[in-house]
Write a structure and sequence with these properties.
The chain is an alpha/beta fold and 722 residues long. The chain folds into five domains: 122 residues, no CATH class; 197 residues, von Willebrand factor, type A domain (Rossmann fold), CATH 3.40.50; 97 residues, Immunoglobulin-like (Sandwich); 204 residues, Rossmann fold, CATH 3.40.50.880; 74 residues, Sandwich (Immunoglobulin-like). It is 24% helix and 31% strand. The strands form ten sheets. A nine-stranded mixed beta sheet has the order 19-18-20-21-28-27-26-23-24. Strands 7-6-3-8-9-37 form a six-stranded mixed beta sheet, with helices on both faces. A five-stranded mixed beta sheet has the order 11-17-16-13-14, with no helix packed on it.
Length: 722
Amino acid sequence: MWMFLNPLFFWAAAAAAIPLILHLVKRRRTVRMPFGTLRFIKAAHARSASRFRLENLLLWFLRTLIMLALAAAFAMPVLRGGAMDRFAGAVHRDVAIVLDVSYSMLYETGSGRVWDAARQAALSILRGLQKGDRVCVFLAGDSTTALIERPTADLEAAADLIRNQEPRLGSSRLDEAAVAAAGALKASSQGESELYVLTDGQALPWQGFSVGRAASTNVSGAGPWDPSRLDRRTASFVLLAGPAAPENTWPFDARLAPDLILTNTAATLTARLGHTGPARTPSLALFVDGVEVSRRSATVEADGGADVSFAVPELPAGVHPARLAVAGDLLPQDDEFHFLIRVRSQLPVLCVGSEQDAFFLMTALAPGRPRAASNRRVSSDQVAGTDLTAYSCVFLVNAMPLPGQAIVALEEYVRQGGVLAVFPGDGAAAADYEQWSVLPARPSGVVEVPRGNRSFPLRLLRANDPLFADFALPPGVTPTLAIYRRLNWGPFAGGAESVVAAGDDVPFLVSRKEGQGRVLMSAVSADRRWSNLPLTSFFVSLVHQIIRYGAGLEKTPPFLSTAPVLNVSEAIAGFKEGDRLESPSGLPVRVRPVRQGAVVRLQADNVVEPGVYQVTGSSGVRSAALALNMPRAESDLTPIDPGSLAERTGLKNLHVARDLEELRRGIDEARRGRPLTEALLWTALGLAVLEVLLSNRLSRGRGKPAQHIEVDASGRIGRTGN
């Protein structure tokens, strides 16, 4: 409907009568001409009189329109739809505010943080509401939090809640929060509704609007984004409070080579940098045990990245906290990347079996040398009471059958990243393997090999398997075994495969990954009763390869991402109920047991502080155990194109602003209506130009009456056709 902000200017519309008065009082000028006969002139004048009147009427109409357009323009008309109560000012509205609380909102600008600008905009929106208006507020983080889930008229309480908010150290999903906000507005009974999305202008959180991914919000009524959730009359506003061209550099990965670091061993660290903005040459420093050990400069391409290599100094055995740090930029929250460097003095191995059964294996662990103190042998009934996490690898040599508690402990050891190698023997029957759930396959029995067919060449079926890294046979050499008996395999478990074959088709070494670890199972025993394997160089090489592989599978990853829930049993090897976990700021972290089927795991909630976490065990020793970093996807500040938001969201009635003043103008336009003053002024100008052109044409086109008379060859007088 039409509204006028200055209706008193309609009195100026009376000026539209001026052209009419001028036309009425205007007199025709009489032209006297000496002529013999006037009847022909009168006839010509009578024919053109009607044309003159029509032209004068058109000029009067144009001049009247000009006066009316000017009067209407100064009355400041606006156009908006809705009911008559809007004109009377009695309408109430429901407002939904979505606040981006990702850590990119902490970006520093010349006037302060982007978050401060967004929060100030939210408070400004509340101040612009009237008594009877209602508001609901949603925080867009990794999941949506309803600060006020249903619209409330207590605007001051809503303002207090917003003032007390700060960004989280995570990403945001604006689509989830918009879904929740749209649901709250749809249930509203107010006359009008408005949706506000206050963010920094980063492209990342808008991706959910286009792909329609499922929502994980904890607010009821969630689902994929659909613009039809909003009433078509709902006004939608987006504030992109961040800079149009942000810059940021962040470290996001650290890889050590080799994976297994021993004392007195040189290592290389490869760090990865991400970058948003024009090309730069940032400085990156490496800190170990809190001391800067190296600093490098790297050239990063525009909106690209770079790899930076550091030489890691020799370190004593133990766990060393380390971090990468870039020189301070405008988003300091992602300038550091934490990780752990584990250095081993030896590779401890646990062998389960009798002394006789384990003889060849224990000898292979240190051929030609006394047995290392780090290599330990235990009997089958001692497994349950042994701390398995202290060992790089566990070998079972003719150790079946095992007690149920020992089987549970070994399977948990595998799932946490351990490597279990199983060699069969005469002491185990097929039924003794039935209790296991991690074996690659359950043997169905033992096959006696005929004397004439006991020679089997060995072939690597998975030469690129990490198990065989740096493992190579001499050119032209094929290991050959004399096999007297072997396991007969049943069906393979899911994910299991044969990595070494004996002959053409007999699986000799079968592998299966389970959790973070791996189970290897041999078809022959580790003694001379089933084959001559223990007497070959292949046996020694294979045992050492398994040990190194097991040591390379870190029981605790060098770094993880912060998360609402952390499985401590998998993240920290050897962590037991009763151990104390401390955050980087020294605060205790609550760890609780959670039953998952038959297994009880330890879980920590709301582990969101980046840095190095310390563990204090029952012995009172405190050590670094875990390094956490914020998810780094949020560090990519590539901006969204404001012009694409309407198409991306599907919202037709969408206003996009870059600052608070522009947002206020958009709100004012949406609530008052679209001002038409400028359009009316341009219309008046166009009409004036048309009136001038028409007047000039008519003044040139009209001549004296005599100019419209012609005399033919016979002397007759008549009117011309013009």
